[in-house]
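ok trying this again, last paste got cut off
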Amino acid sequence: MKKSLFLIVILINTTNFCISQNWGNVNVFFYNQEPSDYALQIFNKVLASSDYEGPDITLKANYYIPNAMAISEPIFQAVWNGYIMVNQFNGYKRYMLYNPNFMTQIQFGCGNEFVALSIFAHELGHHKYNHCDNSQDPWLVFKHPWQKEWESDYYSGFILAKLGADSSDLQISQRLMFSMWGSLTHPNTVTRIQKISEGYRDGGGIDNIQTGLMNIYKQIMNDFTKWHQ
C-alpha cells in the first residue's frame, strides 16, 4: 500500500504559532503535559529528516490549545543590578505543543501517520525560520503572517519529501482536512499550495503534486459552494 501525502493539512490554520508565554490572558505553558511515546516517535522522525540546527525543541502535550503550535517561552534570570535584583532576559526555550484529542481525531480519520508528520513538520518550520523568537530577527515583526506560513508550508513539503511521501490517497485526506476546518475561503490557499510543492520538489519529491493539490482544492470549493451562498 502506498504512503499517503497529507500536504494540505498544513493549510488549515494560519495563526497556530505564538512568540510569547502568554497566549491571550492565559499562560499556555501551565497546561503542558508529557507527550506520548508515539508523539515522540513522530516528532523525532520529523527532526531526523530535517536540516534543523537551531536550539533544542521540547515536545509537550497540551489540551488547552486547539490543534498544534510552535511557541517560544522567554526565559529570565535574576541578576543584581546595583543594589536591586532584576529579571534579565536570557533567551527563549522552544516548544512544539499538540492537542492529543486533535491529533487522535485527525489520524483516526485518515488512518495514516503522514498527517501527523505533516503537522509537526509545519510547526518545525516556524522554529526553523525563527518565527517565534523576537530576538532572533527584529525584522520579523514587520513580516506579514502569511509570509511566515508560506515558509513553514515550504519546509513541511521539504520534510515530507525526505520522508518518502507520495501523492497517493490524496483526495480523501484533503476532503477530511477541509471538512474539519473552516478555511476553504482563505484567500491565500493557492500560494500556500505552491510553497508546499516547491518544498516537496526541493526535498527530492518526484511526484507532480501541485496539479493534484489544485484539482482537489477546486473539487472541495465546488462542493463548498453547493451549500453556501
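PB: full thing came through this time. The chain has seven helices and seven strands.
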